[in-house]
Amino acid sequence: MGKTRSQAKLTFLNWLLAFVLSPGILFPAGYLAVYLATNVHLNSSFKKSMSQEFLAATENRYSISVGTMRADLDLRSVTLQQLEFTTEENLPRQTDNRPIPALRIEQLNLCNILFDSTCRQQSVKTITRQILRNKSSGAIARHQ
User: What is the pTM of this model?
Assistant: First the structure.
């Protein structure tokens, strides 16, 4: 006669498969995948959209360059590193144009930027407004 399921030998491979498919592993693995995908997205097309929004918000007077963007684990804030502001060619250069090494922007909702274009656009606008508010020199006009 054949073995019943309860009599089957527990092998390491069966144990490992059960462990990997358990909810305690699947949920953190899914969240980690969304977190990593969000960070990749922030450093690619999101950064380009933010640069365009910044240029429009300053009426084509200033452009911004961001070294890296990193979402925090809760996906409610983002840290921008190596922010550099440049004046467009037709305007006089600013004397205080030092790069900002890091800027943390809180109270965002980055959870849905991969799935919802409205949420993505709102996040771009919120980050742009916060950058304009936090720029130390008064040279950049603050537009809402």
Answer: 0.73
